[in-house]
Design a protein that fits this description.
Helices cover 28% and strands 29% of the residues. The chain is of the alpha+beta class. It has a single domain, classed as Aminopeptidase. It is globular.
């Protein structure tokens, strides 16, 4: 089974996970991963990132994931039983990200199944993002994340080789949402 960036089922990642391109048929699986992440965060009192509502019932989130799939920017991590255990969406930078004067790839989504936490699924998907960026001639890989609370997500991306760049705040209906853009050079 061929995946994005030349990977195949023979290219097994930690815990027998392989990558493949996501399609519109995979949108419910990605939304289920997001719902699981919201439940996990809420159970720990960490509701600032995505709140407490299911992402799978949010029309805006449904449209975003569908758009990534249609654009060919969705990469899935699947276990040997074909179950989706992680998702990555790459493409153009978000509208609130300051423009850059070089070719870049932007990580629009990274989410993993909490049952697979600590098995390297997220890190493997970020390696895939670097590979896609290099294949496309990008010299910069950027991502943004929630920067509130204890900034644990910012530290996660820093451990993955990203450097904190511009902080930002989005004015959302539920109040301000603090974010952090991080970047990484692609060689």
């Amino acid at each position: 089974m061929q995946g994005t960036g030349g990977g195949s089922q023979a290219d097994q990642e930690p815990g027998h996970v392989y990558h493949r391109a996501g399609t519109e048929a995979d949108v419910p699986a990605v939304l289920a991963l997001l719902d699981g992440a919201v439940r996990w965060l809420a159970a720990r009192g960490r509701t600032g990132q995505w709140g407490t509502e299911r992402q799978s019932t949010n029309p805006r989130r449904q449209a975003m994931v569908t758009g990534w799939a249609k654009a060919g920017g969705l990469v899935l991590a699947c276990d040997s039983g074909e179950r989706v255990v992680g998702a990555l969406a790459v493409g153009a930078a978000r509208s609130y990200a300051p423009p850059v004067n070089e070719p870049e790839l932007y990580v629009n989504l990274l989410v993993t199944d909490r049952e697979w936490a600590g098995r390297g699924v997220g890190q493997a998907l970020l390696r895939r993002a670097r590979s896609i960026a290099a294949d496309r001639g990008a010299t910069l890989l950027r991502v943004d994340c929630y920067a509130g609370g204890d900034r644990a997500l910012v530290r996660y991306y820093e451990r993955a080789g990203f450097t904190a760049a511009e902080p930002f705040t989005l004015d959302l209906p539920d109040g301000p949402w603090p974010g952090q853009i991080l970047s990484q050079r692609i060689r």
